[in-house]
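Handout, section 3.2

Students often ask what a structure token actually looks like in practice. Rather than define it abstractly, here is a full record for DBR1 domain-containing protein. The first block is the sequence as you would receive it.
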Amino acid sequence: MPTSKSIGERFNFFPSDEEVEETMNMFGQDMKIPENFRMTAPPHKESDSWNMPPSKYYPNPQSTEFCDRLKIKCVNTLLCELNPEANGVPYYTIPQNEEIAIADDDDREEGVEKEAQGVEGLFEIDTNPTDIDAKRLKLDDADKLL
């Protein structure tokens, strides 16, 4: 760490008037903190085990934008470039369903249908599980059911 006895190295990092003016110009004289927060990591679930592997690293767009305006290197970008396999997909880029289905015992079937919205075509929900599809069972098992 440089000190006042260091020769040729800056030790006092209070900004000069010129540095303050240059920074103000970089931000267009607007020093208001932007409300541009975006969730990068998925929300924590209480059901997650504490023994889980280390979480992925998620690029942070707010830091990147801030560093770009200051014309300095972004540590987040450097970390992402260091090991791309350790990066996760930023949570804000994953489409989210804003609806939350809450089913009472009386309207359980209606709740199941609401939960299925947005996943149509991925799988089929059997609303009448008493019918047995014998084609899917082994022949021996089908004989036992008759």
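Discussion prompt for tutorial groups: The first helix runs from residue 17 to 26. How would you have guessed this from the sequence alone?
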